[in-house]
Amino acid sequence: MDWLMSKDIPKNPLVFIHGDDDFAVSQRARQIYQKWCNEEDGEDNEIVEAHAVNAGEALKSLGRLNEALETLPFFGGSKVVWLKACNYLGDGRTAKSSDVSETLADLAAKLKTFDWAGVKLLISSAKVDKRKAFYKMVSKAGYTEEFAALSVDDRDWQAKAEQLIGARLKLLKKKADYSAVNEMVQLVGPDARAIVSECEKLAAYVGESVEITVNDVRLIVTQGKHAKAFALGDALGERNLTKLLKRLDEDLWAAKTDRKKSVIGLVAGLVSKVRSLLFARELLDAGWIKPVRGFAQFKSQIENLPADAFAEDRRISPLGLHPYVLYSAANQAQNYTRVELVGAMDLLMHCNRKLVSTSLDESFVLQQVLTQIVVKEARAA
Predict the structure, then answer these.
(1) Separation between Cα atoms, residue 38 and residue 36, nearest integer Å
(2) What is the dihedral of CA 333, 336, 340, 346, to 10 degrees?
(3) Which residues contact 143 (CB under 8 A, 6 or more apart)?
(4) In this structure, which topology does domain 2-146 adopt according to CATH?
(5) pLDDT at residue 259, as a whole number
(6) What is the mean pLDDT of residues 276-294?
(7) Mean of the pLDDT values across residues 266-286?
(8) What is the mean pLDDT of the chain?
(9) What is the DSSP string of 305-339?
(10) 180-194 mean pLDDT
């Protein structure tokens, strides 16, 4: 990936690439390995697969690593060794094995005094336990890089996703305006691997054309789990009745086939959506925020809001919402008045009581309420 390719290649002969973004870790490690191999021009470079399902496999991979480090290049010169996709440096069951722990401690002691003349070692790993001696030794003696996965818990994940899309499209010699990039972020969600894959699909789809439009994104990009989770609420926010009822049917079917989902959960999600729309509508009406196209601009508006102007309890304050949730709501809240949103909240709460206390058909109750919310506002407009 280009946002990785911009990084320099480490000079240290011991390099440790790790993190819970397995895609970024593997891409960065591969970049370093290939560059090292080209620089050293050796023929005895080795890749030791280190993804282990149990302690026995972990010990075998560590044994092969020791052999690789001790075996001199057959034709002389330099050698590159890659301990690839290691998954026993964290706090999982295999990592807690006494045999694995002892072997890693021995390896750490060996690497601490190892003669690196003509040898380079690259280690790529899933998330590690930084409290352990092995990590402490490698981070002190070698060079480390950590790649954290995009996560909805990160208040800046959308901005990072936008940067990744822009950088990837630039590498592919393509361009997309903000609407297209924003649509892609909403569809794919916090998934670096999927973002890169969808960028490549879009580049192939537009062919010789340089420009990628929002229609291209809607036609080609696959909706990820993140977008599916919010699709019903977004359709409500957009006041798109056709889209709303179609998504409702899909979610009701999912609730029947997936034990982790429920109709009451759908209503709770809709209540949460209306709550965010209501917060955004009040901020717009008070002049605290203005609609803007870019998330970065919107986020700066939120950061400049005086905290003492809102309730300390973040559960009843717009500042308690994730900035991107509020950004999306601010754009959609323009489709409703405050009175309409208060009415929508009342209708949903009444709907919830109906679903809990009566045997009425769930689909009919929800369709009736959602239609009443959307069409009522359409008539008022």
Answers:
(1) 5
(2) -40
(3) 10, 11, 12, 14, 15, 16
(4) Rossmann fold (3.40.50)
(5) 78
(6) 88
(7) 91
(8) 87
(9) S-GGGS-SSGGGSGGGS-HHHHHHHHHHGGGS-HH
(10) 88
